[in-house]
Amino acid sequence: MSKSPDVLFVCVHNAGRSQIAKALFNARAIERGLDISAGSAGTIPSERVHPAVVEVMAEIGIDLSSEHGRLLTDEMLSDDPRVITMGCQVDAEACPSLVIDRVVDWGLPDPKDRPIDEVRAIRDEIGNRVDALLSEMTSDSVK
């Protein structure tokens, strides 16, 4: 049985921001030799990752072409992972923060239907936040 994720990135469709965050978190945790991992999910998951997201992640060597949205379940939250939502601009009614008690929201724009340069900027901002989160988590474990 695989270990439950330490961090769960959640957005409405699990087709953009949360997929980027999960992939960057896991790649960078491995690069740093850390035994921590991330998962991702959505309240209304999409059948596939946004094509522009697949493209900008491929530019940095991460293949998301076979990824798809996963439904957020109670089981995913049962081991009390750190939960980070990506922003609820897309559909406030389906916002994951409405169904999760303790959550941090990064409030990022949805990459869907945005020009590729904007999707790259979203990817890079998520990367900066992931780096800060990894640093915070490793300094927390040292204390």
Please summarize the sheet with the most strands. 4 strands, parallel
N- to C-terminal distance: 29 Å
The CATH class label is: Alpha Beta
Number of domains: 1
**Low confidence ranges:** none
**From the coordinates shown, what is the CATH architecture?**
3-Layer(aba) Sandwich
The percentage helix is 25-40%
- Average pLDDT rating: 88
What is the name of the CATH topology?
A: Rossmann fold
Query: Which band does the percent of strand residues land in?
Result: 5-15%
Number of strands: 4
**Biggest sheet: strands side by side, in what order?**
2-1-3-4
Tally the helices: what do you get? 4
The H-level CATH homologous superfamily, spelled out, is: Response regulator
| Oligomer state of the chains in this structure | single chain
Shape: globular
Structural class: alpha/beta
If you had to describe this structure to a student in words, what would you say it looks like?
It is a single chain. The chain has 143 residues and is of the alpha/beta class. It has one domain (9-135): 3-Layer(aba) Sandwich (Rossmann fold), CATH 3.40.50.2300. The chain has helices spanning 17-31, 51-58, 74-77, 116-142, and strands at 7-11, 38-42, 82-85, 104-105. Strands 2-1-3-4 form a four-stranded parallel beta sheet, covered by helices on one side. It starts with 6 loop residues before the first strand and ends with a helix. The model has no long low-confidence stretch (mean pLDDT 88).
